[in-house]
Amino acid sequence: MNEYYMNIALKEAKKALKHNEVPIGAVIVKDNKIISKAFNKRETKKNIINHAEILAISKACKKIKNWRLNDCTIYITMEPCMMCSGAIEQSRINKIVYGTKNEKFGYTKSLKNIEIIPNICEKECKDLVQKFFKKMR
Known about the structure:
With 137 residues, this protein is an alpha/beta fold. The chain is built from 5 helices and 5 strands. The chain has helices at 2-18, 42-45, 52-64, 82-90, 122-136; strands at residues 25-30, 33-39, 72-78, 95-100, 115-117. A 5-stranded mixed sheet has the order 2-1-3-4-5. Helix 1 (2-18) runs parallel beside helix 5. The model has no long low-confidence stretch (mean pLDDT 95).
């Protein structure tokens, strides 16, 4: 199941790539149903907090009409940063599944009470980000 939802997060990341955004996608699942999905929009919206995870959390809260996302899993193509990890923890998401490590800004080691499953579809997630940064240089 992890690969299935990560592939949907990858589709979101590819949307970001089309908008010249860092290709990161996020999907939030509750009771085996997708309740939100998003991709990075920092450049598009000219706002630093428009990371895929933050946007997906916001949409999920709106959908279930609650800021508590208990019993939810977030699938992210790249390990979340400090800001996103904090938002995930504060929103009460129970599990993080991510694709590739974020060597520079990854921040999952500090999280408590959240199950973390790394390296799902790692090659595809890593290749997408590397392709973006090669194009930018």
